[in-house]
Amino acid sequence: MKTVVLIIGANGQLGSVLTESLKQKFGNSNVIASDLRSREGYEGSFEIIDATDINRIEEVVVQYKVTQIYHLAAILSAKGEETPLRTWDINMQTLFNVLEVSRKHNIDRVFFPSSIAVFGEGAPLENTPNNAYLDPATVYGISKAAGENWAQYYFLRYGLDVRSIRYPGVIGYQSLPGGGTTDYAVDIYHKAVLEQDFNCFLKENATLPMIFMEDAIRATIELMDAPKEDIHTRTSYNIAGISFSPAEVVTEIRKLYPDFKVRYEPDFRQEIAARWPNSIDDSAAAKDWGWKPKYDLKLITTTMIQKLKEKYRKGSKNQAALML
Ligand code: AKB
Q1: Mapping DSSP to helix (H, G, I), strand (E, B) and coil, where does residue 105 land?
Q2: Does the annotation count 140 as an active-site position?
Q3: CA quadruple 38, 43, 46, 51: dihedral positive or negative?
Q4: Active-site position among 70, 140, 167, 189
Q5: Could you tell me the residue ranges of all domains in the chain?
Q6: Among 142, 157, 180, 226, who pairs with 76 as Cys (CB 3.0-4.6 Å)?
Q7: Domain 5-170+212-238 is of which CATH architecture?
Q8: Pocket lining: 80 vs ligand 1, CB cutoff 6 Å
């Protein structure tokens, strides 16, 4: 059977990069990118989809004979706290719509991203196990914990092959994050390359699990490629990349930019970060589908700085600076 992929939330930090990788894997004509707004210069099939509208998702699924859906649209941890009930509505309604359309149209595989935000005070901070107690303190985390259980429900009740990863903070040069607690770990590299000072909204010792974009994309594709009988976790898999604090990134960056200046001005996002794990046990993902990260902090830092320098040199300096 030919694989035709629909990506919902294709303009986002992860979605924009994943879309390009899926185009390479399945061919341009078999990947349909979608988001609330069109993307200028996008090469390939692009549909405007508001994922709160189930009819619109269904229309596109039928039109293109979609066989796989990656549902990446969500309001993240920090932004979600501005309007908790709206965040709950959007995160849950869009998931229900994707699950229902997938069930109705016998979609082959569905990907639903979860997050380290599902953990709270009840989970061990170090090496947090896959099956740790989930008591999230943000509405985003609550929606992801509920979403994981709905994903499992659709698998158990209807046999829908939904697969999920709990992403740590994702760091990449290709795109910018929006509204997360881990966003500082991308912004800091832009500021270093632009030779500007950085105001950090977390404390210098706030250690969080992070992952480089290349590793995050590879994990997603490896999970989706794994044989069905190897997937033993139907809520969501922990995956680890590397864990570090703002102070540790600054030390790495200063090896290349010795004058780089940082001020620590923790805000409400520090409270969120304090309840999240410091490090993650990803042995279930390693055992079931062979997960292994490649990028450590040194390699992330040298790659981020080299790629961002190239990007800014190519003339997107003003545009990127405006986006921060
Ligand atoms: C966030 O900070 O909200 C996200 C996440 C860890 O899910 N990057």
Answers
A1: coil
A2: yes
A3: negative
A4: 140
A5: 5-170+212-238, 172-209+241-279+295-323
A6: 180
A7: 3-Layer(aba) Sandwich (3.40)
A8: no
